[in-house]
Amino acid sequence: MTAQTDAPSLGHPADPATAHWIPVRPRLVIASAFMLFLELALIRWTGSNIVHLSYFTNFVLLGSFLGIGLGFLRVGRTRRQPYYSPLVLAALVLIVLRFPVTVDREADGVLYFTSLSTTGPPAWVILPIVFAAAALVLMGPAELVGRCFPLLPRLDAYRYDLIGSLTGIALFTLLSFLSAPPVAWGVIAAVAYGVLLSPRPLSRHIALVTVPSLVVVGALAVETVTAGALWSPYYKVTYREVDRAGVPALRIDVNGIPHQEAVSAEARLTQEAQYGLPYERAAVAAGRLDDVLIVGAGSGSDVAIALAKGAKRVDAVEIDPKLRELGGAYHPDRPYSDPRVHTTITDGRAFLERTDRKYDLILFALPDSLTLVSGASSLRLESYLFTVEALRAAREHLKPGGAFAMYNYYREQWLVDRLASTAEAAFGHRPCVDNVGGGHQAVITVGLTPADQRCAEDWAGAEAGTPPPAEDDRPFLYLYGRDIPPIYLITLGLILLVSLVAVRTVAGPYRRMRPYADLFLLGVAFLLLETKSVTGFALLFGTTWVVNAVVFAGVLVAVLAAVEVTRRFRTPPLPVMYLVLLGGLVIAALVPNAWLLSLPVPLRAVVAVAVAFLPIFAANVVFAKRFADTADATASFGANLLGAVLGGCLEYLALVIGYQGLLVVAGLLYVGAFALMQREAR
Length: 682
Known about the structure:
Layout: H1 16-19, H2 24-49, H3 57-74, H4 84-98, H5 123-146, H6 154-177, H7 182-196, H8 202-227, E1 230-231, E2 236-244, E3 247-254, E4 257-262, H9 265-271, H10 277-281, E5 291-295, H11 301-308, E6 313-318, H12 321-330, E7 341-345, H13 348-354, E8 359-365, H14 388-396, E9 398-409, H15 413-427, E10 432-437, E11 441-447, H16 486-507, H17 517-541, H18 545-568, H19 574-590, H20 593-598, H21 601-628, H22 633-650, H23 654-681
Parallel strand pairs: 5-6, 5-8, 6-7, 8-9
Antiparallel strand pairs: 1-2, 2-3, 3-4, 9-11, 10-11
Helix pairs in contact: 2-3, 2-5, 2-6, 2-7, 3-5, 3-16, 3-22, 4-5, 4-8, 5-16, 6-18, 7-8, 9-11, 14-15, 17-18, 17-21, 17-22, 17-23, 18-21, 19-21, 19-23
């Protein structure tokens, strides 16, 4: 049976899905767009308001996957409208705003940068709660999407679902570009609930839809007005003027965590020794300082210091446009107004890979992000900045006699030693290491040659047991061992337990999904494939929100292309497509990142897209062909979505085997899916 001959199921006349005032196709697009928009908004908003949750936003994504899968599985089991979704969303918003929570980020073997104390519930308690809340909220829109599936041919329904998903990504990306506050997200959610949930009877609609939606909009409006926050694509940014040891400064918090202070160069150099040490340790600084690169320029203090030290040109690289905006408006030295300063808003590693300029001094100035690249991975914004390959890229951009330096409050001596060892591996000789204060505050400086650095004393080398330098394939600088820390294992175990109970409670016996076990494995494997694509493109083109949005949209476009090809053309049989898929995985595993990074950016983009999206395209032709022949559209699609929950858990295997290793795991899962399909056919 093909998609063209797959007759739609007409449903019961009293079913609300058939009685809706919006025709099924536009309703499916609207519901799918709302579902993805709400998922992205939940990830951003909860990470900005639950302190330290931004380190764990992938757990919100896992909850979203579970909710979407459960929503599909509820179709056919009830005729009631999913009024619970706006009610739970309103409760979640009110509870988070009324009772702020700080997730205790203390954990064995992994570090999270923050200057706050770690009081609050442990992560293994709060994360499953947030996970369950996200699942309940997303289950409603997913149920509305799922009710449209039986009314259309299989691939038509999937096609409109993908179009809606792309629309949701585009809308959220536009609002991010415009720095829209969460009240705008709340208004869109309120309108979507009002349009999609049946208005009959009116009294029930007002009580269960209109009132909760107004509560959400009102609470977010109050937050927007009272917080005085700027919403960057990464953070909720708040700021205030403070007195710092008798010197006026601008304190900047992100997601409720103290992050930066904009203070004059004179005060900074007087009060904290670390800011002046790179200029003392770099031999070139004593003679000439023509060109300086500062990665993590932020609100401008490090830029002001470079100018005070006599730099003739400063390239200031900052990933967050709002931090740069605050520095331009409020820094007392006005460094960004100086004609010697040239600002670039991008990821520091991406800048190093693209620029052809060379520098006398390159500084990594406290570039410690407080969030993940996306909800689809455990990668932080700065992860690719501290690998041995990144420091080699920095070395390639030094002039003769130049030097590289980085400084921060590293909190652990093993982290100082690990970074110093990374500099040693990249430059071929030991760096200068200055421990200058509490909290393992340190400055690491290394010249292009040993003669280009002036150490106060020789570094003794890393202590025994120090982890080796991080690498691009496993860029987990803050992970002490090559394992999965207990905090993740406990939390993931609880999440899987909640998922098993929820599926049985909401969807009934598992036997309904038993014929679609291969589709479940396809969901597991595809999530790993998507994670590898997101992290791979972050390395090749930067960890910016723009790259992230483009990659996710690109994945959906590749999926939509696979559906269109399957709908319109005769495609090879499934065994052949599985061979194409496995061949694409082999190619992706064999192409080294170092070779891709050596290519010019336009050619790199072409090759990277071809390598990454061939297996994605093939995987979705496999799914589309299999999905078109299923007897139960919602159960089969729900099984596939629930597989993504397990895939999100298995993503943490990258902490042990690296991101390239995820391709091997995905390949084994696809082999398993093929075997299950063959068994089911027999």
